[in-house]
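Notes, p. 3: input format for complexes.
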Amino acid sequence: MGQSHPFIQYHPLKPDGAAIDAVRAFESRMSSRRSVRAFSTKPVDRALIESIVAAAGTAPSGANKQPWRFVVVGDAATKARIREAAESEERAFYDHKAPSDWLEDLAPLQTGPEKQFLEDAPWLVIVFKLMKDDNECSSSDRVYYVNESVGMAVGILLAAAQHCGLATLTHTPSPMGFLREILGRPDYERPYVVIPIGWAAEDCVVPDIERKPLDKILHMHEPQDESSS
Ligand code: IYR
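Output follows (229 residues plus 3-iodo-tyrosine):
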């Protein structure tokens, strides 16, 4: 049997002002977030990264299994090894593996096999998904909705970094198996994404791409009034 928990009173967050002002301030904050590929080497306090990861760990997850591990790398030697292995995969991707329509979709972003950011960013957070639950208190070691759960945790991590002015990138070298080897992670931990975190370089530029307007992403479902037909 797994642990059973008492049910306790839920205390919703109370925004300082009106709910609409709170959500608009959050949206405005998030709208200036961009994927950054040029990082300053200026250090970032470990405490900031720890709190950002703690925020990610508040995400909901299937059966509350919290199937994630955040491996934080800050030393130059490991970052260099990760860069070398990632660039080797990326060279193969850009050279012959990627289908032409994928390369055409990437062209406006001007990405390429060189990944200087993997060494410049003071921290790399390598997110692993857990394919089994390693909490001894659980009734079973099964995990559920792992991709969805880890995706939500990564979303919160990106928002937390943005909230304190730190830049991030979601980097997915493919395949990513080398991360397990370099970082000595067990077989049931599978690499999910690499997130460089740091201060954006002063001369950092980003492509002037736009987000879809609300009317393209929101469909307000209006139930049909059956009495009028
Ligand atoms: N992993 C490669 C290619 C790449 C793929 C997607 I989808 C992007 O949004 C960006 C890049 C790279 O990191 O360059």
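The longest strand covers residues 189-198.
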